[in-house]
Amino acid sequence: MIISVASGKGGTGKTLVATSLALSLKDKHEVQLLDCDVEEPNDHIFLKPVITGSEAVCIPIPEVDEKKCTYCGKCAEACAYHAIAVFTKHVLVFPNLCHGCGACSYLCPEKAITEVGREIGVVECGHSDGMEFAHGKLNVGEAMPTPVIRRVKSKANRDWIVIIDVSPGTSCPVVESIKDSDFCLLVTEPTPFGLNDLMLAVETVKELEVSCGVVINRAGVGDRKVEEYCLREGIPVLLTIPLDTEIARINSRGRTLIEGMPQWKESFIGLFGQIQEIMNARSGCLKR
Ligand code: SF4
Ligand code: SF4
Q1: The CATH number of the domain where 167 resides is what?
Q2: Could you tell me whether strands 161-165 and 31-35 are parallel, antiparallel, or unpaired per DSSP bridges?
Q3: Residue bearing the CA closest to ligand 2, atom 6
């Protein structure tokens, strides 16, 4: 089962939920945690994994053999990203704009374009306290996280419980991370901002046709509008974590909730049980 943990906005406690769920399940299940927040991965700060392997993530960018080139301009016309420009006697490639789509080399009538790899990030794999771990790191200044996310997700072992920590927001990296998940946990806080971003996240998850449930973090800080919205929309609130200075203290010291307050383990096991029930009910409906 693949469970993604997402949130419409940053700072809601997504990492807290992802790491706590993984640590609570690892004694009874085989668990893998994939940190797909590749622009700012931070699960490793809490889990302190032993990294055993690392691989570069590259995208193919064009290299032009100007001995073969006739400066016809077809490659520049084909490029949707303005990453290649053709002058009277010169072709210029802008590697940082190139998305590695391959259209220019495919369409070049002279076969003057070959593709060379350009490194945009790295994926590191390892283990932490009995569970498997992988995360991606996008190089600073790079604009395309999705190839790195895809590589992290390629490490998923579907026979295990795979927990994916998704980047905040509702943009392309979020869609790439959540798609193919069996269930998505949306972490929010009970504030007007939390509600607004939760509504956007729910729309995204619905588009992807992934079942979802909500975790309300820092309950007590705001109002009850998130609960009222969930009730109206038929979205189950699966766990509520109160605003608690002890949780904040544990978090700020780079320790996991389960390590600092082990009594939360049962709540996260219960959360997983509820997800299983929802999934079982859904597959029952589909069979009928
Ligand atoms: S399509 Fe090929 S031949 Fe034409 S300008 Fe581009 S590289 Fe040169
Ligand atoms: S590979 Fe795609 S994005 Fe890159 S220069 Fe060629 S057409 Fe443009």
Answers
A1: 3.40.50.300
A2: parallel
A3: 104
Q: Ligand 1, atom 3: nearest CA belongs to which residue?
A: 69
Does 117 fall in a domain? no
Quick one: 13 and 153 in the same domain?
yes
Say yes or no to pLDDT of 284 above 80: no
Closest-lying ligand 1 atom to the alpha carbon of residue 70: 3
Structural domains in the chain (count): 2
Whether residues 146 and 40 share a domain: the answer is: yes
Reported as a pLDDT band with limits 50, 70 and 90, residue 143 is confident
Which residues' Cβ are closer than 6 Å to ligand 2?
Answer: 61-62, 78-79, 81, 83-84, 98-104
For residues 72-81, give the mean pLDDT. 96
Question: Are 277 and 197 part of one and the same domain?
Answer: yes
Residues 275 and 220 both lie in one domain: yes
User: pTM for this one?
Assistant: 0.90
In-domain check, residue 92: yes
pLDDT score at 288: 55
pLDDT in tens, 216-255: 999 988 889 999 999 999 999 999 999 999 999 999 999 9
Cα(72) to centroid(ligand 1), Å: 5
Tokens standing for residue 153 = 């997700």
Please say whether the beta carbons of 73 and 91 come within 8 A.
no
Residue 166 DSSP one-character state? P
For the chain, count helices (H), then strands (E): 11, 11
Tokens of 24: 């609570």
pLDDT tens figures, 208-219: 999 999 999 999
Domain that includes residue 107, residue range = 66-111
Q: Are residues 186 and 219 in the same domain?
A: yes
